[in-house]
Specification:
This protein has three helices and six strands. It is of the alpha+beta class. The strands form two sheets. It has a three-stranded antiparallel sheet. Strand 4 and strand 5 form a beta hairpin. The longest helix is centred in the middle third of the chain and has 77 residues.
């Protein structure tokens, strides 16, 4: 440490004294550091092993994902082929069912044609005999419809008009029938398996109010 005593005479100039004080101060307060003495980073073998393990695991996961993707693609192709085969079988089954239904209907109708031809070739003593033969064919036709699950609606003249099962063609005024009743049946209605197949076409009775022409 430099002793600055004002009572003593200074030797040399003031600049040299200041330089000496500054040099001593730096030596005491901030010692010079040798960069070669600082600790240098050294490679960690365990960190290298961990990185290689993570990379290997990632490669294994990628291989598993690619294998799974290939399996899913193969499964998708198999499902598409199965669906296409099912669709083709369904179309064939539907076509076969329609063909069998048509065949069943035709087999029910052909005997009616046979009876019509027999009736045309027969001789009748009078109109009533001819009418009786036609009535037999009619009953046979209704029986064939019944076997096909088709039944005639139980509609009679004089019954109330029902818009759910009948279609009104026109109106007619008959004082012997109630207002709104069926006055005449133009075409009979039919049900197929309990559901309306064809609505009956009828004439509805409408009574005129008194005082109106």
């Amino acid at each position: 440490m430099v002793d600055l005593n004002l009572d003593e005479s200074l030797e040399g100039d003031l600049q040299s004294v200041a330089d000496e004080v500054a040099s001593e101060y730096r030596t005491q307060m901030v010692p010079e550091l040798d960069l070669l003495d600082l600790p240098q980073p050294t490679p960690d073998p365990e960190a290298r092993v961990d990185l290689e393990s993570a990379l290997t695991e990632a490669e294994h996961q990628m291989e598993d994902m690619l294998r799974r993707e290939a399996e899913l693609m193969d499964q998708q192709r198999r499902l598409a082929a199965d669906f296409n085969n099912f669709r083709n079988r369904a179309q064939r089954d539907i076509a076969l069912a329609v063909e069998q239904a048509e065949r069943k209907i035709l087999l029910e109708m052909l005997p009616l044609l046979d009876n019509f031809e027999r009736g045309l070739g027969a001789t009748y003593q009078d109109v009533e005999s001819f009418r009786a033969g036609v009535e037999l064919i009619r009953k046979q036709f209704l029986e064939s419809l019944r076997r096909l699950n088709v039944e005639q609606l139980p509609l009679q003249v004089g019954e109330p008009f029902d818009a759910l099962t009948s279609e009104a063609l026109t109106t007619f005024s008959d004082p012997n029938l109630p207002d709104g009743a069926v006055a005449a049946i133009y075409e009979q209605g039919f049900n197929l398996k309990g559901q309306l197949l064809r609505a009956a076409r009828v004439v509805v009775n409408r009574l005129q109010e008194p005082g109106k022409s």
